[in-house]
Amino acid sequence: MKKIHINSSFFINNRDKLSKLLLKNSVAVIxxxxxxxxxxxxxxxxxxNSDLFYLTGIEQExxxxxxxxxxxxxxxxxxxxxxxxxxxxEVWEGKKLSPEMASKISGIKNVVELSRFEFVLxxxxxxxxxxxxxxxxxxRAFNSVQSRDMxxxxxxxxxxxxxxxxRISPLLYSLRVYKSPEEIELIQxxxxxxxxxxxxxxxxVKPGVMEYEVQAELAHEFIKQGTLFAxxxxxxxxxxxxxxxxxxxxxxxxxEGDILLMDxxxxxxxxxxxxxxxxxxxxxxxxxxxxVYNAVLRAFNGTVKEIKPGKTVRDICMIARELISKxxxxxxxxxxxxxxxxxxxxxxxxxxxxxxxxxFLGLGVHDVGIFNEPLKAGAxxxxxxxxxxxxxxxxxRLENDILLTKNGNKDLMSNIPIEADEIEELMNSR
Length: 430
Ligand code: GLY
Ligand code: MN
Ligand code: MN
Description:
This protein has 14 helices and 16 strands. By secondary structure, it is an alpha+beta fold. The protein has two domains: 8-176, Creatinase/prolidase N-terminal domain (Creatine Amidinohydrolase, Chain A, domain 1); 181-427, Creatinase/methionine aminopeptidase superfamily (Creatine Amidinohydrolase), CATH 3.90.230.10. A six-stranded mixed β-sheet has the order 4-3-2-1-5-6, sandwiched between helices. The chain has a three-stranded antiparallel β-sheet with strand order 7-8-11. A hairpin with a 4-residue loop joins strand 13 (386-389) and strand 14. The longest helix has 22 residues, at 181-202. It starts with 7 loop residues before the first helix and ends with a helix. Residues 274, 359, 382, 384, 399 line the site of one manganese (II) ion. The site of one manganese (II) ion has 5 residues, from loops.
């Protein structure tokens, strides 16, 4: 269903940048993800490890990248291992990558069958001091299931106990967080397709439609354009459901008078967009809904202005909290005038705004990056303020994807309707 539109020069360049960050005389190994089991002989849809994809473009399971940049033999400086040819498997699953195909995608000349991996590795490790291994060091990842990388770390430590072990993730993350022009184009394309899905919905949503029917419209638009949803389950949440932040059941009716909160996006070549819009099911906001909507929109606009180099994600989150606090006071949901006090102390504030405003975006929807480090041009962040009033069965969140530039930022979703009047107009022109 999905095609990858990235030239091998991108992956060659990424490997080159990473190799330059390694200590002298090092080996680095990056593994693919596993195919995860479901039940009986079933499996979940395969999703490649983002680090391996970033370095090779290979989407196939049982793939390993081995880097040894100081090797005297140029052929051995980078080797890609792919699963051995298996004619029986081919009958069931179709053609897997041949060495030639894998080489064309990745730009790696030396592609070898995986059964030879341990011999080749052993030979290299006899002459190398440092081994760089990969771990998932995202601050919110629990890593409760052992990955191929983790199994490989155990294997290495058992068989090569006296080498100097290094983490590759800080190096990779320092590269992945700042996007190249090609990556920005891919994210922009994901944003544009997401916008196509949204515009289609504005003509489809009406009282009585089911949340899953809305999701089906999006699936049609994305698959028709040769891609899939971004790497998170879409949230299609009508009425009170909008107040449950990760509502993904999507099986309720969209009722007359509800606001429908939709957090969905498409991906493009594995790069994700991430968008939220909140629309009136019947095409017309009530006075109260519009008031809350415009409060969120002002917080959105006020926060976007502050997303610029030098700021940290934490700074941006504090700015948003302050703006939302002020709006909650105006909406008479919070009483105090001391906004700073609300941000720090009030559990009431968390009730109306229980999340934060921003995260990094890229190959991961919640991409790699450090929240308390000053940002530079090239980072892509989301901006996603919201107000949730469960007593009124009303939740509103707005979310766009923002690229940091040298002079400020660029909203990659600036052409996707967000003003209340424009949304009403589009919904009523069908
Ligand atoms: N869609 C997930 C998020 O907005 O963070
Ligand atoms: Mn988001
Ligand atoms: Mn989102």
